[in-house]
Design goal:
The protein is of the alpha/beta class and 260 residues long. The protein has helices at residues 29-44, 66-71, 86-96, 98-105, 121-128, 155-163, 165-174, 180-186, 195-210, 214-226, 232-259; strands spanning 5-10, 13-18, 50-55, 59-61, 110-114, 117-119, 131-135, 139-141, 178-179, 191-193. 51% of the residues lie in helices and 16% in strands.
Length: 260
Amino acid sequence: MDDVLIERVEGRVAVLTLNRPDSLNALDTVLMRRLVEGVRRVADDKAIGCVVLTGAGRGFCSGGDVKSISDARDADSSEPGPRGNIESRTSWLRRNVEAARLLHEMPKPVIAMINGACAGAGLSLAAACDFRFAATSAKFRPAFTANGMPGDYGGSWLWPRILGDAKARQLYLIDEMRDACRALAFGLVDRVYPDSQLAAVTMALATRLAALPPDGLAYAKNNLNAATTETFAQSLDRESLNMMLARHALIEARKSETAT
C-alpha cells in the first residue's frame, strides 16, 4: 500500500504512524524508505516542536519483514538493494537505518508510543526515541539472535547507554519476551499506561514539550547525546556554550515578539 507511513500534525506535534497493521507494522523495503523520508521531513520542519512515533492496529513494529525484504528490489535505486552482493546490501541497509540516527539526533524530543508488539528493529527504533511510553498490552522482544541475526537500527549502540552494558547483553543474547510490566522494571520503557489512555497521555506530554522554547530543548538534547562520548570537562564546555546560545535565542525571540 502507498500509505505505509501516515503523517499527521496536531498543533506543533507531528505523529508518524507505521501503517502495515496486517504484519504488525513490520518494515518492508517501502516502509523503510518512507520512514527515513518522513523522519527527515519532521526533523527539518521548524513548525514541529515534538514528534510521536507509533504503529497502526495492534502493533508498534514487529521488526523487519524478512520475506518481503528478501523478495524485493530497491525500486528507487539502480543498485541491487537487498538482493545484491554483501557490499551493495550493506550500503542499502545503511541508507535505510538512517531513520534511527535521525530520530536520535533531531533537535526536538521524540516519543515512541508503543501500542503493541515491539520487536527486532522496532525495539531499536524505540530506543532511538527520547521517551518510550507503552500500553499495558505491549510485548517486547529483541528477536535477533534467536533468528541468527546480530541486530540493526542502532540498538547495539543505544541499549547499552539506556540500560547499561550488562542488561543490554541480557537483552540481546538471552532474547526473552517481556510484557509491559517486565519491560518497565527492566528499563526498556519509561512509563506504562492502560491501552485506552496511552494516546491521550502521550499527546498531552508531546503538546507540552512542543510548547517549550525549541532552542533550549535542542541544546539540552545535544548536551545529552554528546555526553555519552565526551569527558566531564568537555561536557562543561559544551553546556556553557549551549547555555549562552540558548539565552541569545530567547532574547532574539522576545525581540521578534515585541516587534510584531
